[in-house]
Structure formats: C-alpha cells, structure tokens
Automatic annotation (TrEMBL):
It comes from the Eukaryota. It comes from Cuscuta epithymum. This is Uncharacterized protein. Keywords: Glycoprotein, Signal.
Length: 108
C-alpha cells in the first residue's frame, strides 16, 4: 500500500515538471504575433465597407471594446501619412465633432 502512494506522487511530480518545461519552452520561443481586426467605414457612403486592419496598441489593450470617431489621414502639408514629422505647434486634426479623431498612418 505504501508503494502505491509513492508511485502516485512520482507520477504527479513528473507530470508537473513536464507541464512546467512545456510552458517555459513556449515562453522562450519569442513569437511575434500581429493582432488583426477590421475598420468599418460608415461615411462617406461611397467608401462604406469593412476593411482589414492591424491593431497598434499603445499601452494596455482594451479588448472587446469599440471606438467611434472621425478618421483623419494626414496630408504632406500636415506631416505626411507616415507620421514621421512632429504634429506639435498647430492643430491640423482638430475634431469637428464631439467624437475623437482617429489618426490613420501608413506603416513604414
């Protein structure tokens, strides 16, 4: 009877160590995951559609939420679509509504 208890503990220890090793292996792979989502354009009507997009989270992601606002795509006069120039000193993206602006930049 005592032998069976020792055997059960050994199996449990080996199982736990195997699970821990597998978890550490997954953490060490360092995979790069691109999170995808979609953007639904409501207006203007000729662009009304759902478009594929990648998510750029700054800070802790707030999953399960939604954001409604005006999409702004900067012209060359306002720093360009890559967002490589500073937007300080002027307000080219001042919202015309009470909703926030969503700055759409080209990924470079």
């Amino acid at each position: 009877m005592g032998y069976e208890v020792v055997m059960d503990k050994s199996i449990m220890i080996v199982t736990v160590l195997g699970l821990m090793a597998g978890y550490c292996w997954e953490m060490g792979e360092g995979r790069f995951v691109v999170e995808t989502n979609s953007i639904t354009v409501v207006q203007p009507y000729d662009l009304h559609a759902k478009h594929n997009a990648s998510i750029s989270d700054f800070g802790v992601p707030k999953y399960g939420g939604s954001l409604v606002g005006s999409v702004v795509y900067p012209s060359a006069q306002h720093g360009g679509p890559l967002g490589c120039s500073s937007f300080q000193g002027f307000k080219p993206f001042k919202s015309k509504t009470s909703r926030p602006n969503i700055l759409l930049l080209d990924r470079g």
